[in-house]
Amino acid sequence: MVNYSKAMIAGSLALGLCLAGSPGQVRASADADLKEVANEAAVAVGDLLLEQLKTEWLPVPKASLLNCGDRDLLLSGAFYLPGPKNETLSAMGWFDVPAGDNSGSLPMPSDTFFIRIEAVEPSGDDDTPDDTKPVELPGLQTREFCARWPALDDLEDLDYFVSEEPDGKFFDREVGLAVPEGCGEDGYEMMPFYQIDASDLDEYDELGIQCDNDGCKIVKASEENPVPVGFRECPN
C-alpha cells in the first residue's frame, strides 16, 4: 500500500498555496499576520485536494511513479513557491512507493517542477540501517534544493517542507523550525533535483515515470497506451 506522507501531499499543498494566492494577496484583517493567513488557507485547500487526489484525476500538472522493480522507491518534489516579494525555492517530503506499486498522481503547482527519486538499498543486517541511492533520469537538467534525507527506520517520518526565506535562509514549515545554516546538518542537505518542463508532460499534464530493475524512464500516455501512468499496473 502506498504511504501518503502528509507533507508529500506537498503537491496538493503547493497547489493550495497557488490557489490561495501569495501572502501579500490574502486579506483577512488589517492586524492579521499575512503569512500565517496564507499558510492556513494553503493547508485548508491542500487538505481538500488530498481527498480529491485519492479518488479523482486532477486536471493540473502532476507526477506519477510506477515502480515495477524489486526495490522500494522514494519520490520527492520541488518547485517555485510564490512569496510576498518574489518566488522562493521549496522542496517537500518523501513519498513512499513500494516495489510493484504506483504512487498515483501528485499534483504540482506549475508545469515546471523538480523531482528526485531514491532507491532503497537494504543492508541485509538487522544492526545496520538501510541506505538509499539516487536514481538517474538521463537527459534532464538538475537544480539543487535544500531537502531532508528520509528516515528509513520510520516511514511515518518522511515529512518535510523546506522553503527558502527572503533572507536566503531555509525554514522547514513541516516542523516549524529554521534549517541549520547552510543546509548541511541535522539530516538536511543541498540535493540535485531533476527539472521537469511542460514538454516532458503528456496530454493529461502528467509526468509519468516507470521504473524497473534496469532503471527509470519517462513514459507518456499515447495512442498505443492511452492510460495515464498514474493508473497503470506493473506487468506480471
Highlighted features:
four-stranded mixed sheet, 32% strand, disordered N terminus, ten-stranded antiparallel sheet, 14 strands, 236 residues, alpha+beta, 2 helices
Distance between the termini: 18 Å
Structural category is alpha+beta
Annotation field: number of helices: 2
* Global shape: globular
Question: Could you name the ranges where pLDDT drops below 50 across 5 or more consecutive residues?
Answer: 1-32, 52-57
Rg over CA atoms: 18 Å
Provide the succession of SSEs: HHEEEEEEEEEEEEEE
Average pLDDT works out at: 76
Task: Tell me which oligomeric state these chains represent.
Answer: single chain
How would a crystallographer describe the biggest sheet?
A: 10 strands, antiparallel
How many beta-strand segments?
14
Approximate strand percentage: 25-35%
Considering DSSP H and I runs of 4 or more, what fraction of the residues is helical? 10-25%
